[in-house]
């Protein structure tokens, strides 16, 4: 059975044997390569299964991206964001990225009503149609082909796509891979020559981690158990057996203020606990090993560790995390956005929407609808959201430093128009454009000098003439 039934809780240890369980439980027969069912059950039943698969995508998508339509009205951004929200693109991204990590391969298929999936979906064909983005996992993609001939252009790329046996045009589906693709390496969880699951290189660690949890369960059971020592050395008879049963029943029914009566020769004891610290230390070491196997996810994200340790404030640790997340964004998330954004632009800027923009904005009146559409599409771009936003105190301090530098430029003789351009070009300073005038003291000094020059000298007093 492999790992298919590895984490089903009905297969529990009775305490009579070791923590390896029996072959019926599937714990000892670990496969070399995980199957589709193995990956699904690790995600569902292993305690860290969801966290390993979802921690990095959730963190990478925790900051909303910034939509840009260069030299276009703000309304274009609002319209695009409304389309994203209506189609639940954020949720879609999280799910497909999680599937890619679980199975090693997954994708998105663009479908519409009254449409043939084998035909390319163009701008004109999306008008007046209902469009949906559906997630497809390896089971749905069975029959798709990935190039395995290194002499062909489609080597290690998807060359044909089938969804539930139906041919799909390559432009209408995105297929993502979790890891490096090996030459002629057939992956059972993909049903194809794809990439391995995120769980593949930690099979033995999962096994050992589960054994330690089983050990903790045994210790916790032992901690809550009571041992009754019966010192009656006689032959067991019905009377002594009934007395022992009543004693055990009385102890079982006790609460904090309960009272139980036992024989003078009997005693009630608790088990001596030992090994808790050792098992806990082993689990901590295993967590570190899992972190090394899971090379793309920083430990602070997976295990919720504090960034600030010792005398540090966590800034340097956060920089290392952001570097890892930035690589994941560029390698995994950006290609999906590049695929989705084309269709999101189609669905946002329909002919009706373009006509309304022409009526509302005078700069568009001379443009035809196709020209306006192309201009809007070409102006589109996006930037990643900031995963580590600055505090208000830090923003204020940075702004003060920038303004001090500008004051030094002014003292060196820089033109006010140049300084004004620098201020307005920096989005971190002010939200609105700033117009700089000559400082008040400079104008006052100029007025004083002018008045002193143009003021006529006083006529000599008569008394001075007489003298």
Commentary on this structure:
The protein has 467 residues and is mainly α. The chain is 46% helix and 10% strand. The chain contains 16 helices and ten strands. The strands form four sheets. A three-stranded antiparallel sheet has the order 3-2-7. A three-stranded antiparallel sheet has the order 4-5-6, with no helix packed on it. A hairpin with a 2-residue loop joins β5 and β6 (166-168). α2 (49-60) crosses α4, α3 (74-86) packs across α10 and α6 (203-223) packs antiparallel against α8. The longest helix has 34 residues, at 315-348. The protein is extended, with a radius of gyration of 36 Å. Mean pLDDT is 80; it is low at 1-5, 7-28, 308-312 and 449-467.
Structural class: mainly alpha
User: What is the chain-wise order of helices and strands?
Assistant: HHEHHEHEEEEEHEHEHHHHHEHHHH
Profile the largest sheet.
3 strands, antiparallel
Helix content: 40-55%
Which runs of at least 5 residues are low in confidence (pLDDT < 50)? Answer: 1-5, 7-28, 308-312, 449-467
Provide a quick synopsis of the model:
With 467 residues, the chain is mostly helical. It is 46% helix and 10% strand. It contains 16 helices and ten strands.
Looking at this protein, list some descriptive labels.
16 helices, three-stranded antiparallel sheet, disordered N terminus, 467 residues, 10 strands, extended, mainly alpha
Give the topology, please.
Layout: H1 36-45, H2 49-60, E1 66-69, H3 74-86, H4 89-103, E2 105-112, H5 123-126, E3 131-136, E4 145-146, E5 158-163, E6 166-168, E7 173-177, H6 203-223, E8 226-229, H7 238-252, E9 267-270, H8 276-293, H9 299-302, H10 315-348, H11 351-360, H12 369-378, E10 380-383, H13 392-411, H14 416-425, H15 440-454, H16 462-466
Antiparallel strand pairs: 1-10, 2-3, 2-7, 4-5, 5-6, 8-9
């Amino acid at each position: 059975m492999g790992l298919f039934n590895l984490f089903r809780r009905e297969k529990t240890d009775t305490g009579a044997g070791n923590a390896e369980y029996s072959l019926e439980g599937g714990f000892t027969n670990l496969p070399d390569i995980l199957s589709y069912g193995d990956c699904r059950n690790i995600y569902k039943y292993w305690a860290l299964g969801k966290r390993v698969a979802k921690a990095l995508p959730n963190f990478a998508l925790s900051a909303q991206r910034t939509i840009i339509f260069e030299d276009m009205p703000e309304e274009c951004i609002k319209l695009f964001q409304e389309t994203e929200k209506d189609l639940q693109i954020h949720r879609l991204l999280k799910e497909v990225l999680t599937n890619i990590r679980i199975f090693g391969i997954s994708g998105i298929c663009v479908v519409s009503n009254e449409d043939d999936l084998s035909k390319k979906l163009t701008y004109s064909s999306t008008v007046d149609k209902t469009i949906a983005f559906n997630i497809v996992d390896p089971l749905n993609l069975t029959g798709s082909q990935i190039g395995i001939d290194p002499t062909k252009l489609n080597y290690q790329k998807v060359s044909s796509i089938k969804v539930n046996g139906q041919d799909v045009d390559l432009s209408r589906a995105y297929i993502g891979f979790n890891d490096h693709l090996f030459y002629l390496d057939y992956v059972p969880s993909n049903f194809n020559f794809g990439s391995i699951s995120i769980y593949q290189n930690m099979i033995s660690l999962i096994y050992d981690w589960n054994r330690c949890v089983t050990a903790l369960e045994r210790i916790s059971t032992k901690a809550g158990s009571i041992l009754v020592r019966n010192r009656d050395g006689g032959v067991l008879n019905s009377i002594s057996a009934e007395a022992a049963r009543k004693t055990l029943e009385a102890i079982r029914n006790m609460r904090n203020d309960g009272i139980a009566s036992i024989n003078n020769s009997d005693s009630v004891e608790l088990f001596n606990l030992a090994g808790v610290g050792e098992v806990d230390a082993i689990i901590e070491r295993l967590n570190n090993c899992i972190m090394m196997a899971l090379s793309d996810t920083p430990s602070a994200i997976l295990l919720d560790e504090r960034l600030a340790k010792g005398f540090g404030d966590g800034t340097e640790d956060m920089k290392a995390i952001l570097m890892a997340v930035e690589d994941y964004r560029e390698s995994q998330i950006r290609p999906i956005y590049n695929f989705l954004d084309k269709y999101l632009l189609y669905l946002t800027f329909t002919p009706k929407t373009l006509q309304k923009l022409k009526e509302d904005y005078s700069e568009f009146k001379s443009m035809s609808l196709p020209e306006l559409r192309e201009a809007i599409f070409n102006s589109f771009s996006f930037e990643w959201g900031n995963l580590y936003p600055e505090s208000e105190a830090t923003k204020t301090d940075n702004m003060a430093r920038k303004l001090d530098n500008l004051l030094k430029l002014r003292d060196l003789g820089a033109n006010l128009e140049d300084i004004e351009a620098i201020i307005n070009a920096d989005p971190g300073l002010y939200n609105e454009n700033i117009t700089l005038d000559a400082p008040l003291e400079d104008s006052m000094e100029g007025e004083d000098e002018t008045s002193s020059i143009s003021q006529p000298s006083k006529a000599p007093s008569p008394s001075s003439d007489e003298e």
